[in-house]
Amino acid sequence: MESVFEIIAEPNRRAILSLLVSSQQSVGEIERQLRMPQPTVSKHLRVLREAGFVESTVDAQRRLYRLKPEPLQELDVWLAPFRRFWSAHLDALERHLDRMDRSTRTKRKTRRSR
Amino acid sequence: MESVFEIIAEPNRRAILSLLVSSQQSVGEIERQLRMPQPTVSKHLRVLREAGFVESTVDAQRRLYRLKPEPLQELDVWLAPFRRFWSAHLDALERHLDRMDRSTRTKRKTRRSR
DNA sequence: GGAGCATATACTCGTCAAGGTATATACAGG
DNA sequence: CCTGTATATACCTTGACGAGTATATGCTCC
Questions:
Q1: Do residues A65 and A26 lie in contact, with contact meaning Cβ atoms separated by under 8 Å?
Q2: Could you list the pLDDT tens digit for every one of the 114 residues in chain A?
Q3: For a designed S-S bond to B9, which of A9, A45, A46, B33 qualifies (C-beta 3.0 to 4.6 A apart)?
Q4: Strand pairing partners for A64?
Q5: Strand partners, A57
Q6: CATH 1.10.10.10 residue ranges in chain A?
């Protein structure tokens, strides 16, 4: 379980990270919101903690987990050269984002502004 | 082998992608530059191709592989909320990037400009 | 059309990580 | 202290993916 990439390859871990973006959560809250068994949550949190994605503070019996930015920033850094690459392909980008947009939204009618 | 994340979890695949950022390459060129056995290269290219990270054009017996931007853009999109999160933690960011910088460079002496 | 090169695929094997279940640790409150 | 709650860990099993080796496909040129 070395790299940032392997850590976020796991869907449940990504779900946990996404949950924590809004605010810190206890293990139980994560468990309930994501509908996953408690040992699973704890184990993934352990992985995330040891990789520096999250940190925890103790609150009585609860442990509150919060995001730490560094590892994902590393990912961002890795992505940088590719961003430079695809800015040469901006048309395809627009088309792609547009397609993603169209497939996820339900009722909007307005077009993406350029 | 579903998600973008699983695809780039593999170090050899990331190496191939990084190679292709500069320009398209034949299988043999990838093989030589990365010092990996040919079937390994072909198999990883297959995965990358099927996931839409690369596309190939035929040139006689060679196949030239080139990057396609979409999947990595997806990654970029996923990263967006976290970027918003950590812009609140800019100090830690600076410190972290600085540390990464220091650990990878060998002879530079100049400081990162803010 | 046969030789040689470039690339793809088939198959086997080992490894490792995720899930499930059970259990341990730790804290709170009566 | 004992019960209940919250979280962590241990152990086992299973499945998937990557490496390696061998072989197939396909193209070129003579």
A1: yes
A2: 789 999 999 999 999 999 999 999 999 999 999 999 999 999 999 999 999 999 999 999 999 999 999 999 999 999 999 999 988 776 666 767 777 776 665 544 444 444
A3: A9
A4: A26, A57
A5: A64
A6: 4-68
Pick the CATH number of B4-68 from 3.40.30.10, 1.20.1250.20, 2.30.30.240, 1.10.10.10: 1.10.10.10
H/E/C letters for each residue in chain B? CCCHHHHCCCHHHHHHHHHHHHCCEEHHHHHHHHCCCHHHHHHHHHHHHHCCCEEEEEECCEEEEEECCHHHHHHHHHHHHHHHHHHHHHHHHHHHHHHHHHHHCCCCCCCCCC
Per-residue DSSP letter, A59? E
Q: Is A39 on the interface with B (CB under 8 A)?
A: no
Are the beta carbons of B82 and A100 separated by less than 8 Å? no
Q: Are the CB atoms for A51 and A7 separated by under 8 Å?
A: yes
Nucleotide minimizing C1' to CA distance for residue A56: D7
Question: Is residue A70 within 8 angstroms of chain B, CB to CB?
Answer: yes
**Residue contacts between A and B (CB atoms, under 8 Å):** 78
